[in-house]
Specification:
single chain, Undecaprenyl pyrophosphate synthetase, six-stranded parallel beta sheet, 9 helices
């Protein structure tokens, strides 16, 4: 009885604090684009005495909540880092269950009413995973509202290398020499060939699980982003953690380039 009472009181206090955060949120300073490094699934599973796929599934189950919170707050674009290029080298015993979870998650995002845009080296992925990503993107291409970049087989260095390669190929097809390209190439030329071309750069990048580094996430695009690091493992990420990130972002005086 005492345990249930404490849990009830804790729940009431949590909801009251959540309402207070919502009431104090400056809706004029909500980030347009939020990037999220969903970190800590494996550590969450280890702490629970479970296999890694249990952590990945718990993390996948949290994504729908996050996207709902973003929609409610007025965020226009979310980039979710679901699988890095480094993760592709994991043993098949872990990678294959993770890929199945990702395929289901992407399908559920599409079925949830959001627009799906895969970003990453899709050619490195197994054919079935690539097929699921393309199907979700095609099925949601005409939707308005929240756009969800699903970064799968993604690495920031690889993205920049792919962008430069694409830029060189594009100009070579038009007969531009290397010398001529070197005379005119600038930052915008490379930006036009990134996986996220045409999109605004992330205003806010959130990383869970206590790590305070980018690990290659949106290296080019995050040059002027604000960062928020949360101690909670991704499956334990709560709405109040999200609201705190928005509150912290709204309080910051953003200085681009200085």
């Amino acid at each position: 009885m005492a345990i249930r009472t404490r849990a009830r009181v804790k729940g009431i206090a949590y909801r009251a604090y959540e309402r207070r955060l919502v009431g104090r949120l400056d809706l004029t300073r909500v980030p347009r684009h939020v990037g999220v490094i969903l970190d800590g699934n494996r550590r969450w599973a280890k702490a629970a005495g479970s296999r890694p796929e249990a952590g990945h599934q718990a993390g996948a189950d949290k994504i729908h909540e996050l996207l709902s919170w973003c929609s409610d707050a007025g965020v226009e674009l979310v980039t979710l880092w679901l699988l890095s290029t480094d993760n592709l080298t994991r043993p098949d015993s872990e990678l294959q269950p993770l890929l199945r979870i990702i395929e289901t998650t992407v399908t559920e995002i599409a079925e949830g009413g959001w627009r799906v845009n895969p970003v990453g080296a899709i050619d490195l992925l197994p054919p079935e995973t690539a097929r699921v990503l393309k199907a979700a993107a095609d099925a949601t291409a005409e939707r308005s509202g929240l756009l969800v970049n699903v970064a799968i087989g993604y690495g920031g260095r690889r993205e920049i290398a792919d962008a430069v390669r694409s830029l060189l190929q594009s100009h070579a097809a038009r007969g531009t020499s290397i010398e001529e390209l070197a005379e005119v190439i600038d930052v915008e030329h490379i930006s036009e060939h990134l996986y996220t071309r045409g999109q605004p750069d992330p205003d806010l990048v959130i990383r869970t699980s206590g790590e305070q580094r980018l690990s290659g996430f949106l290296l080019w695009q995050s040059a002027h982003s604000e960062f928020h690091f949360c101690e909670a493992h991704w499956p334990d990420f709560r709405r109040i953690d999200f609201l705190r990130a928005l509150r912290e972002y709204a309080r910051r005086d953003r200085r681009f380039g200085g």
